[in-house]
Amino acid sequence: MKIDPRTVLSHSLSPSTPQEKKAKDLERLRETCQEFESILVMEMYKSMRKAVPEGGLFEKSIAKDTYQEMFDMEVARQTASGSGIGIAEAMYRQMADQIENKKYE
């Protein structure tokens, strides 16, 4: 009988105690809240760019638009990774109680 090493590895890395499971869930919640905030900030950047009239030094092109979108996404991620604008922290505080009160077996 062959044993798939991925199943053994994934089983050994999974949290075993209820406290470890709760800590892992809280960590995932924080990451998800920060990712949501970064998406929201990116949408704000896109809306602000649409409000600025076209023109300037560089001509409009697909390459420029792609680069600008990648730049905005990275700036949004960096904004949300720190203290951000507070939306991620507010969401985390609101939903963390549900994880804290969850029964782990």
TrEMBL record:
Residues 46-94 form the Flagellar protein FlgJ N-terminal domain. Residues 9-18 have a biased composition (Polar residues). Keywords: Cell projection, Cilium, Flagellum. InterPro entries: Flagellar_prot_FlgJ_N. Residues 1-27 are annotated as: Disordered. It comes from the Bacteria. This is Flagellar protein FlgJ. It comes from Desulfopila aestuarii DSM 18488.
